[in-house]
Amino acid sequence: MQSTSTLPQPHRDLSALNWDMLRIFLAVSRSQSISKAAKNLAESQPTISRRIRELEDCLAARLIARGKDGVKLTEEGRVLLEYVEKIESETFLLTDAVNGADARYEGDVILTAPSSLGLNLIAPNLAGFSASYPSITLDLILNSSKLNLMDREADVSVRIGTPSQQSLVGRRLGSVKFFLYASESYLERFGRPESLEDLQAHRFVDLSGELETSCQSQILANIAPAARRVIKTNCMSTQFQAVSDGMGIGMLPDYQVNYQVRTGSPIVQLLPEIVTAKEQVWVLFHPDLKAVARARAVIDFIIDVTKVDLAD
Predict the structure, then answer these.
(1) For the chain, first and last CA: distance in Å?
(2) What is the pLDDT of residues 134-155, one digit of tens each?
(3) What is the pTM of this model?
(4) DSSP letter for each residue of 168-193
(5) What single DSSP character describes residue 142?
(6) Domains (range + CATH), the chain
(7) In 63-100, which positions are buried (b, 16+ CB within 10 angstroms) versus exposed (e)?
(8) Which residues have a Cβ under 8 Å from the Cβ of 121 and sit 6 or more positions away?
(9) Residues 6+ apart with CB under 8 A from 127
(10) Where are the alpha helices (DSSP H) in 161-292?
(11) Per-residue pLDDT tens for 278-290?
(12) Is the predicted pLDDT of residue 269 greater than 70, yes or no?
C-alpha cells in the first residue's frame, strides 16, 4: 500500500527511539485503547501513555488522538504503523531463521479454538498428532475469546465466522450447522414441538457471556424471546450436557452432536426445516508462519481432523 503521508522531518531526536516504544505503539493502535493495551502488555496506563508521548517526541509527530470512543491513529500514526508492522514481521522471520526452526518439525505451537469444537474434534485426535510429531509441543487453548494472531498471542487459530483481519493467512475448513435438539426424556415430559408457536411454551438451555452474541443464541432470542431459560452457560459442552440430561431444548452445532452420538449420547433434532443456522469455519495464522514446518504440521492436522464433520 502506498503511503499518502510522511513523518515530519524537523526536530526529530531518534537517539532515544527503541523497540519498546514501537511495541507499545503497536499494542495501542491494534486495541484502539490505552487501557486495553495496558492490560494486554501487563503495564500501567500511565506507563503506556508516557511511552507514547516519548515516541511522539522522538519523531516530532502526533501519532494518536484520544476521543470518547477510544484511540484513533492520526495520519502520521497510520504511516508509522505500516513501517512498524514491517519491522515486527521481519523480526519474527529473523528469530526463526536464527534458530533454524523453519524447516524442522520441532518447537512450540500455540493453537486456539472454540472450546466445543476443540473438545469434540481436536482433543480426541491429539494422541495421533503427538505420535506423528513427537518434537512439537502443542499448546492448545480452548475458549470463546479470539486471541490476537498478529501480536503472536497464538500461532494458529480455528474460528467460527468470517475472518475480519485481512492481514492474516487462512483456509476455510468448511461450515458448522446449528439445529434445535432435545433429549427423549425431555420430549416425554413436555411434548415434541411441531411449530414455532409450540416453542414458546418450552424450556431452553441458552448461552451466556461472550457466547450470548453467537448466531445460535441470537436465533433463540428471535424465535422464542419469552420462553423460559432454565439454564444459561458460557460453555457449549455444559449446554450439551444439560440438553442431554433433559433440562431443556438447545441450539447445538452438528459436529458436537455427531461426536456425542458416536460416543453414546443420542439426542433428537427438532424442526430442522424451520430453525437452522450455518457459519463458516476457518483456520487462520500469521503470514510469517506460512513456511514454518511446525506450524504447517498443526494446520494440516486441523484440516485433516475437521474435514468430515465440517464438510459443506
Answers:
(1) 35
(2) 999 999 999 867 777 877 788 9
(3) 0.66
(4) SEEEEEEEEEEEEEE-HHHHHHH---
(5) E
(6) 14-99 (1.10.10.10), 103-312 (3.40.190.290)
(7) bbeeeeeebebeebbbbbbeebbeebeeebbeebeeee
(8) 255, 259, 305, 306, 309, 310
(9) none
(10) 184-190, 196-199, 215-223, 236-244, 254-262
(11) 999 999 998 888 8
(12) yes
Q: Which residue reads 485503547 in cell numbers?
A: 33
Tell me the HSE value of 245 on the side-chain side, using a 13 A CA sphere: 10
CB-CB contact of 268 with 244 (8 Å): no
Cell numbers standing for residue 128: 495421533
The rounded distance, in Å, linking the Cα atoms of 246 and 186 is 4
- Of 270, 5, 262, the C-alpha closest to 121 is 262
Length, in residues, of the chain: 312
Amino acid, single-letter form, for residue 195:
S
Rounded Cα–Cα distance for residues 79 and 229 (Å): 50
